[in-house]
Here is the input.
Amino acid sequence: MPSTSPIYMDNHATTRTDPRVVEAMLPFFAEHFGNAGSIGHSFGDRAREAVADSTASIARLLSVEPAEIIFTSGATESNNLAIRGVSERNQRRGRHLVSVRSEHRSVLDPLERLALRDFAVTYLEVEQYGSPRAGWLDPERVADALRDDTVLVSVMLANNEIGVIQPIAEIAAVCRHRGVLLHCDATQAVGKIPVDVRALGVDLLSFSGHKIYGPKGIGGLLIRAGSPVVRLTPQITGGGQQGGIRSGTLNVPGIVGLARALELCIEELPTEAPRLAELRNRLFEGLCHQLPEIELCGPAFDLRDQGNQPIRLSGNLDITLGNVDGEALLLEMKQLAVSSGATCSANTPGPSHVLLALGLPEDQARSSLRFGLGRFNTVQEVDSAIEMVVEASSRLGKLGYSGRLDFSQ
Ligand SMILES: Cc1ncc(COP(=O)(O)O)c(C=O)c1O
Here is the structure.
């Protein structure tokens, strides 16, 4: 029997805040509510101490120094600060930027705005649909795109739709060799795969609390210290907090929650990643068994990189459903929370730009469903989700309804 309470499988969009994270945050609302910038009283001291402890913990878990962490409101802001900040500050050296067609909108949009201000942007292609490594970026493409006036490359670590994990360490080596800075949007990777920022060799790295069972409204940008110095123009100015790189009163409960969320993810990663892979495989096999027209988008599950790490996030499944429209199917399955296309770009309806970047025809891209399995999902939920998708597709099929929604109105 299908479950009657709603099932949440949209963990790439956001995650439920873990009750253990909420517990860690609570004292910093009404009890230790001081401003971490207040000097000379115990309220400020307590807040500052909490920020210092949390920063130290995040630094240790991601292999950076505490001074390399800038807190932001989330990955959108981190991506903007990195891309606009570095481009604006280094424009005398060059005005060429390199990124990838399948990046998140919070990377693509700032790039498009810079392009309106006479910056040149090269968007790289990824391995196409049909390849077992669909969505993967060959580091050679980065090497070929670099020019003497390139100041920044921005490549994500894990993709929010198809879960592909990019070879960032190799890309970083290419960039370093040519003296070009590398920014990495690691929003979907931090907490889900091991991320050792020092070993990756990136210059800037974005991440976010609400993707890792932490609170919304908090994130970070890691900015490598040392030589050559990473210079960037602040995008939010004011009280000069965080060395003037990002002004604004620190979000103390958010920072405490972000650190706790990351600690839990890293502690549980060795058991959680294989558990999610098993759930994801069960989901895919169950769906394919009953709906043979289903096709996988993104890289094959069992592919590994040179370091023997999977090249797909274990909790990610993205499929196309033949001639059934993904949006119509979503509306048919009120009790199953999944997504068709990227929820973060819900304001730009139409087929997902990531699937189009893979070379999928528009029709096929519109028939996609994305599952993001996470910490609170169970085997029973997977089995119920399979039934819900199968029943809803058959209902739509009986209506003779391919379910195309008209977005033009
Ligand atoms: C890859 C990626 N980058 C950036 C973001 C934006 O993150 P935030 O919601 O923290 O601004 C998201 C959110 O979906 C994402 O998946």
Remarks:
- The radius of gyration is 22 Å.
- Confidence is low (pLDDT under 50) at residues 403-409.
- The longest strand covers residues 96-100.
